[in-house]
Amino acid sequence: MIGILIMLVSMVFVLSVVVTVHELGHFWAARACGVAIDRFSIGFGPALFSWRDKSGVEWRIASIPLGGYVRFAGDENAASVPDQNDLEAMKREIAQREGAEAVKKYFHFKPVWQRAIIAAAGPMANFVLAILVFAVMLVVIGDLKSQVIVDRVEAGSAAAAAGFKPADVIVRMDGRKVESYRDVQSYVGLRAKLPIAFTVQRAQQSVELTAVPTLVEQKDEIAGRMKVGRLGVALSGRAYLEKSSPWMAVPKATMQVWDMLKTIGFYLGRLVTGQMPADQISGIIGIGHTAGAVTKASVENAPNVKTLVVRAVASQMLLIASLSVSIGFMNLLPIPVLDGGHLLLYAYEAVFRRPLRADFQAAGFRAGLALILGFMLFAAWNDLNRYDVFKFIGGLFT
User: Fold this and answer.
1) C-alpha 2, offset from chain centre
2) What pLDDT shows up at residue 40?
3) Does residue 63 surpass a pLDDT of 70?
4) Residue 82 has pLDDT above 70, yes or no
5) Residues 107, 118: Cα–Cα separation, whole Å
6) Is 217 a catalytic site residue?
7) Predicted TM-score of the model (pTM)
8) Domains in the chain: ranges and CATH
9) CA distances for 330 relative to 10, 40, 48, 58, 260, angstroms
């Protein structure tokens, strides 16, 4: 029960921060463009309490603490982009009710480039959040560094076939500098059945090796059962934390986020083309389990309360940054309902000088919603299988 409670609290906190910052991105961009805003809600469902600021925006704390939303004035169309007839009717109604000048403050009558900025601001806020978190961590805690030395090569493994030998120092992978054993694990893990060019230092000589990691299933306390690429080596090397200066932390953190985006895109591409099994897709259950497991692992055996708090805060911040990058990326996909879908509609409007027809928008919205819901159900099924929930339930009746 304690583990489940830790998981739920951690998941709610992490998701709430990431989604709220995403919505704040839309909110700040809309305000900068002079858009009238009705409400900003932290959470969903009935309001626990609310208040209005000087500009008339209702700020609400809702009863379901899983994210939030921003609602623009007049934003009643499900696809958020009415067609030309809807726009004309809406314009007349606003002009009669509030006067002709009031039309300019409504989202749908802003220039298409401003609407595109507002749509993109949510994912951008997620990326900025991740950069700031990583930058603070680099300054306060530091980045993991180590020399990566091959201790042992498994017989019959991909590493043995490539010619790896004990005492080899891995320097580069596909031209990328290796700075810790974590770099090797993450890079190899995503490249099962793909050749990787390694540069190793062997007895004062630089040796080029090419290995093709095998796809294996392994069980992890945090990630559950996962299929990953495996090289077949045991690595060692003295690890240490290298702190960054404040003026170098932001550029380093930006590159870290950019590398994460490239990794997500690469992995998604392999999934779509069938090079990686689709059962690796994870969803809300996986997020919750990961959040709980990371939090629990970070605070176990803490020698004192101060250390426990520092570890807990650091683990939550890293989870927030990682999830923020993923949510920002996913929201930019050109799928109706998501921000990327809105950007696609705005691109159409910019090219053809008119919004897409309302019936086409509605059809796209329904298809996008069905796709997202189907994806969520599929991911949930994967999570239940990955964490052996069905095996556990089956064991209760045997």
Assistant:
1) 27
2) 94
3) yes
4) no
5) 9
6) no
7) 0.86
8) 145-242 (2.30.42.10)
9) 22, 22, 30, 28, 13
